[in-house]
Amino acid sequence: MVQAEAVRVYLPSTLPGLRALLDTGEVGSPPLPAYAVTGALREWYAEGDEEELEYAAMTLAARASVRLLDRALVLDPTTPPRRVVIAADVDAVEPAPDVDRAAVRVTEPVLLRRVRSVHVDDPAAADDVRAAAEQLVEADLGSEDAAFVVEQAEGHELQWYATQEIGPLLELG
Q: Which domain of life is it from (predicted)?
């Protein structure tokens, strides 16, 4: 189902993904996995207000960012292990309940001008995020020890950046 009005989505990414956003002016090619405040999320988290629901969607995107880092670190061990979430307003999404109650697929290009903010781990979180990326599969398979490692990374709050701060953020690494 395609939405008729703009929807705030939270797209999982990485620091190299942010570099690509600046270089190309868009966030990859659709369909793009993202998270949003969906009807299913509202139903599940009925007592949450809009801000809490958006935070829940962003938290799911941050965990998906760890999944991206797991692969990125295998391909390039020098990838900065910091979770990245891109918040954008888009017009075309479809629910992806097979993934999660807040999961959606963005079916249009997400241009830089539609990005509202980015959320990135502080460099101090890097060791915990790297460990979480290395343990994520084991956590998914039920390892309590691995789940604890993943939760350690999730204990770090993402920092908020305006779109004009993306370039300076990337220069700092």
A: Bacteria
